[in-house]
Amino acid sequence: SGSNGPLPASSADDVRFMRRALELAERGAGRVSPNPKVGAVIVQQGRIVGEGWHAEYGLAHAEVAALIEAGPRATGATAYVSLEPCNHTGKTGPCSEALIAAGVSRVVFAAHDPNPKAAGGAARLASAGIAVSGGVLEREALDQNAPFFFAARGADRPFVTLKLAVSIDGAIVDASRQPGWLTGEEARAAVHALRAETDAIAVGIGTALADDPALTVRHAASPRRAPLRVVFDRGARLPLDGQLVQSARALPVVDFTDGSCPEAESALRAAGIETVVVASAGEALRHLGTRGVRHLLVEGGAALGSSLLAAGLVDQLVIFQAPVILGAGALSAFAALPAQRAGQAPRLRVVERKALGADLMTVYAVSGD
Ligand code: AOF
Ligand code: ZN
C-alpha cells in the first residue's frame, strides 16, 4: 500500500535488490528465533550503499543496521526489506521511524509483518510521504520464515520439518535393515545447519536404538540456543548407555512415553531424562509448543515420519537424495502411508532444491500454501 498516486511497478532491480535482502537475512540463521530472519539493503541511484540484517535476537533490526552503514547516503534512497518494517517499540525502536528520520524516499518490502504488535509500518511510512510497495519476492520471504508465519497464524503446535536421507529408489534403509550412511559430507553439514536453526530435534525410538544419535549441532556454526533433544519413545526403551542419556545432564532430552512402563520411565528420570506422558503425537507437539518450540526438526525414522505425515503433522519435508540404488527389499521412507494413485496423488510444492556434492537436497511444502 502506498500514497502519492500510482505505485512504482516492481522492476527487475527491485527483484534483484530484494534477493540480496533475502540473502542477507540468512546470516541471522540460528541467532534470531523466535524472531524472523530479516535482511535490508539501502540503494542510492542504483548502487547499494548499506546492507544489514537482524543478527541477534533482541538486537538491532535489519533496517537499522543497513541505515547505519548507509549514513547520509540514505537520504533520498530506496530501502529494500524482506519483512514490512516494524512500527513498534519492542526490544528496539520502530524501524518505520528510523527510515523516516533517515529521509529514504521509497521502501520496498517482501511480506507483511503478521505480528499485530509490530504491524502497521507500511501505513506509517506512507503517511510520511514515502512511496511504499510490498509483495516483492513475497513467496520466498514467507518460505524463508515459514515457522514464524506459521506461529503467527495462531498454530497450537510447532512448525514441523521432516528430514530424511533417501536413495535414488526412495529408500531410507536397505534390505538388511542395518543402518548405513547414504549421503556425503556436504549434506551432513546442511543437516547440521538445519539443526542449528530449529528449536528442537526429534527422532523415533527405532532410530535412537539403531543409530545412537547425539542430536547436537556439530558441523555448523553454534546456534544461540542449543536445540532441545526429543525422543518419541512410547515404551520408554531409550537405552541408558546411549549418547542421549549419557549427555542428558549437560543438554536436556525430553522423552515422550505412553506411561505404560513406569519403572523404565523412572530409571530414565534418574539418569537425567525428562519423561513426559502423552496420549498422541499431536499432544507431544502441543507440549513442545507450550515450551516455546516454534520449529521442530524430525530426523526419522520411517515409522515416526509416516505417522506424523499421516496425522497431518508435517509442514515441510527436507529430502536428501544420495546417488545410490538400494534395490530389492529396501524400505521406502513412506511405505506405511496410505496408497495413492499416480496422477491423483497431491503434488507437493518445491520450496528449494540444491545440489550438495553428489547429493540433491529438496525442500517440499507439505501443508499450507
Ligand atoms: C523489522 N526488522 O529486522 C525484524 C523485525 O522483539 P523485537 O523488538 O526485536 O521485535 C520483534 C518483532 O519485530 C518480530 O516478531 C517481528 O514482528 C518484527 N521483526 N521487524 O522491522 C527486523 N526482525
Ligand atoms: Zn523493526
From TrEMBL:
Pathway: Cofactor biosynthesis; riboflavin biosynthesis; 5-amino-6-(D-ribitylamino)uracil from GTP: step 3/4; Cofactor biosynthesis; riboflavin biosynthesis; 5-amino-6-(D-ribitylamino)uracil from GTP: step 2/4. One of its GO terms (molecular function) is 5-amino-6-(5-phosphoribosylamino)uracil reductase activity. The active site is at 63 (proton donor). It comes from the Bacteria. Substrate binds at residues 195, 215, 218, 299. The chain crosses the membrane at residues 320-339. One of its GO terms (biological process) is riboflavin biosynthetic process. Its cofactor is Zn(2+). Zn(2+) binds at residues 61, 86, 95. Keywords: Hydrolase, Membrane, Metal-binding, Multifunctional enzyme, NADP, Oxidoreductase, Riboflavin biosynthesis, Transmembrane, Transmembrane helix, Zinc. NADP(+) binds at residues 165, 181, 207, 211, 301-307. It catalyses: 2,5-diamino-6-hydroxy-4-(5-phosphoribosylamino)-pyrimidine + H2O + H(+) = 5-amino-6-(5-phospho-D-ribosylamino)uracil + NH4(+); 5-amino-6-(5-phospho-D-ribitylamino)uracil + NADP(+) = 5-amino-6-(5-phospho-D-ribosylamino)uracil + NADPH + H(+). Residues 12-133 form the CMP/dCMP-type deaminase domain. Its EC number is 3.5.4.26, 1.1.1.193. Binds 1 zinc ion. Converts 2,5-diamino-6-(ribosylamino)-4(3h)-pyrimidinone 5'-phosphate into 5-amino-6-(ribosylamino)-2,4(1h,3h)-pyrimidinedione 5'-phosphate. In the N-terminal section; belongs to the cytidine and deoxycytidylate deaminase family. This is Riboflavin biosynthesis protein RibD. The gene is ribD.
